[in-house]
Amino acid sequence: MSVNKAGQNDTMPVVDSEDIAQSVVRHLQQSLGVELDEAGPAEYWEALSLVVREIDLQRIRATRKKEREGKARRIYYLSLEFLVGRLLGNNLHNLGIFKETEKAMAKLGTPLVDILENESDPSLGNGGLGRLAACFMDSMTTLDMPAMGYGINYRFGLFRQSFAGGKQVETPDGWREDSFPWGIERAKRKQHVKLYGLVREHAGKAVWEDTQEVLGMPWDVPVTGYGTGTVNTLRLWESRAAHGFDLNSFDAGRYQDSRSQEISAENISQVLYPNDNHPAGKELRLIQQYFFVACSLADLIERYKRENSESLKNIADKVAIQLNDTHPAIAVAEFMRVLMDEENVVFSRALEVTREVFAYTNHTLLPEALEEWPQQLITKVLPRHMQIIHMINYHFLHSEVEAVWPGDDHMKRRLSIIEEPDRPGDDQMVRMAFLSVVGSHKVNGVAALHSRLVQEKLFPEFHHMWPEKIINVTNGVTPRRWLDYCNPELAALIDETIEGDWRKDLYKLGAMKAYADDPAFQKRFAAIKHDNKKHLAAVIKELCDVDVSPDAIFDVQIKRLHEYKRQQMNLLHIMALYRRLLDNPDLDVPPRVFIFGAKAAPGYKVAKTIIHAINRVAERVNNDRRIKDKLKVVFLPNYRVSLAEKIIPAADVSEQISTAGFEASGTGNMKFALNGALTVGTLDGANVEIAEEVGDDNIFIFGLTVEQVSELRHRGYNPRDIYNRSEELRSVIDWLDSGDLCPEEPEAFRPLVEALLDQGDYFLTMADYQAYSDAHERIAETWKKPELWWKMAITNSASMGKFSSDRSIQDYGKAIWNMS
Ligand SMILES: *Cc1c(COP(=O)(O)O)cnc(C)c1O
């Protein structure tokens, strides 16, 4: 295929439908061995993916050549998760050949939409953190930044979710078992990683020996940018047995982990841990972290040496490494080890270089989510790294902390990277967040409020020591996937209406504000939403076998299931609405469909109970004729990127109702507003900035603020008081607890009821309930005034310029990566 015809500039491929059709047929026959008349959508999907891959590869080579010649500083984004979503449709869009491909496939007799449905989501992430990494790769590439993502090519990504009797059932997701044409093995770049063993001194030098060895094989996934020739690489490591990995010595009962956790070379990259905002603390997870970090650092150092110099003393001029949360934090110790043990750099200089290279993004304030590893475990798996962490800690405490708080041993204990146990005899724990802060030149939070809390509550002493270090970079989402690709009708309407390419500069959407109360524009905007709702209604019918009307309010909460995100508050309110309708079936309320999507970590009991309860309430409500279709509840199974792409364009209301102070940013909130949904939300995470951008009149804010939350806790909070005072809350909680919704297991919802009433309701569901219910009344009143509703919806979409991940990446470039 000719990617660049004579006379065309080299930013976009120039291919027409005829070229594409020919290439598809060629790949069907020559790559897949399938004849045209045998090909179905699955075969077409694979052939078409190979066509696009060919374009990508050609451009990757050009991109790398340009970068080698330009000798630019490269950004390396280290993340245990990349939730990239399906790649074919997105790549066609970014390459600007979607329309021509539609024509080509129509000629071949299979609609492109059907073909795209055959791609399984690479489920290499849990939720927001992994999706952020994917949006950032898209933006770095679109902005022509030399960037590379490093992660793990898990064989089994996040589990597949289904429901049995309303309960979550998990099955393994072997997402690349059939085929994954995007991943290309690059044996030439394989790495060897050492584990275990011990450290001896030879002639005054520490030597790490008697180690086990694992092989890391890289798989490269091309990342296309929009409207640019640049194609970057996401390099994902897979573990393999290497000579010297002695399985037998591992079976000898040396592990406290259960049998299913037995560690062999291959199973290091077998599974993604399914916890969101909660570390598993398992040996295999530490090994995963070190494995991918060691492979990635060795790989980028080799590249630096190839392109620049054998000496690493100026490596910071060419290399910036971003740590996506503390998951890759062991990289700080590994980089120090390489500098000191392999490159003979002295400790103090090694620490300087390390700090220039590294930066760390904090994603959570939840105390239980902050990673700590037992010192004993690190000593066993990575003995040299434990020594180096002690050296860093010693220097940090005795020269840097000492300089600010001379003689203050209490402060040294508070700030030590190695936490002393409360009780003597307990394990000392290594605080990975402290290691990340000490080893980095910048630390960022992910929304303005969150970053302030990182400065004031999480790391106040670090902030005092280094007032310039902790900064904010508000998250964003790529408008290519989250508007252009997932909502093509709205994208076309915007193109018709405003000047310039909002796909590259999302602030351009601001011009749409001028049309917010234009009746003709409102009509078209509303018609597109209605159309998207019809499509979603069909998906709901297929997945849940429930009929919903596109004329009802589609009220959506899709995100990981966690008590801090408060799906349980949404549930209590739905139960109350149902009871209000039963009391008065002629109640003048707009019909509503409540839509959920969420996976719960398999070990998270209360979260799974909430899923079960929502499904049982849904079943009851959906089958009750008395309420005349005024209320429906659906829980779509197996929430993931490809499902989000169908749900978000069809949403009227976006539920962003976390307890204030707990959601670091949220990015779902941004995707919804971009697609014209109205937010009902607390003043938490990026909701605060969304409210600033859209204006207070265009969002339904409710509930306690961060300050009010801490005042309430200070005063003493008793959820029972609220239960006793509120007739409505009492009736729905008693109903949950009565066994009526689950007669075969009457105690099924006890864990939820106990969390709310007996265990202090830590996430303040009861305290915020009334304000939440009132906010929903305001939503219902607004829905009755369509001109107002659509004005608000359009204003939301038009005000999302700030929340492009392009803006986030530009902020990182300026404030963290020192790019011009
Ligand atoms: C955007 C996204 C998330 C993050 O959603 P939040 O509401 O910000 O928690 C999680 N999962 C998927 C699949 C997403 O696309």
Q: Which helices and strands appear, and what pairs or packs with what?
A:
Blueprint: H1 17-30, H2 41-70, E1 74-78, H3 88-95, H4 98-108, H5 112-116, H6 128-142, E2 147-152, E3 160-164, E4 167-171, E5 184-185, E6 191-195, E7 198-202, E8 205-209, E9 212-224, E10 231-241, H7 283-307, E11 319-324, H8 330-342, H9 347-357, E12 358-361, E13 372-374, H10 375-381, H11 383-404, H12 409-415, E14 418-419, E15 429-431, H13 432-438, E16 442-445, H14 448-458, H15 460-465, E17 470-472, H16 479-485, H17 488-497, H18 519-544, E18 553-558, H19 567-583, E19 592-597, H20 605-622, E20 631-635, H21 641-647, E21 653-656, H22 668-674, E22 678-681, H23 687-694, E23 700-701, H24 706-715, H25 719-725, H26 727-737, H27 750-757, H28 765-783, H29 786-798, H30 805-815
Parallel strand pairs: 1-2, 1-11, 2-10, 11-12, 12-16, 16-17, 18-19, 18-21, 19-20, 21-22, 22-23
Antiparallel strand pairs: 3-4, 5-9, 6-9, 7-8, 9-10, 13-15, 14-15
Bound molecules: pyridoxal-5'-phosphate.
Bound molecules: pyridoxal-5'-phosphate
The CATH H-level homologous superfamily of the largest domain? Glycogen Phosphorylase B
Number of strands: 23
Principal-axes shape call: globular
* Amount of helix: 40-55%
Could you say what the CATH architecture of the largest domain is?
3-Layer(aba) Sandwich
- Given the structure, what is the number of helices? 30
- End-to-end separation in angstroms reads 37 Å
List low-confidence stretches. Answer: 1-11, 247-261
Strand content: 5-15%
Largest sheet, described in full?
Answer: 10 strands, mixed
Radius of gyration over all CA atoms, rounded: 27 Å
CATH T-level fold name of the largest domain: Rossmann fold
Mean pLDDT, to the nearest integer, reads: 94
CATH top level of the largest domain is Alpha Beta
The helix/strand class is alpha/beta
Family: Belongs to the glycogen phosphorylase family.
GO molecular function, one term: glycogen phosphorylase activity
Cofactor: pyridoxal 5'-phosphate
Function: Allosteric enzyme that catalyzes the rate-limiting step in glycogen catabolism, the phosphorolytic cleavage of glycogen to produce glucose-1-phosphate, and plays a central role in maintaining cellular and organismal glucose homeostasis.
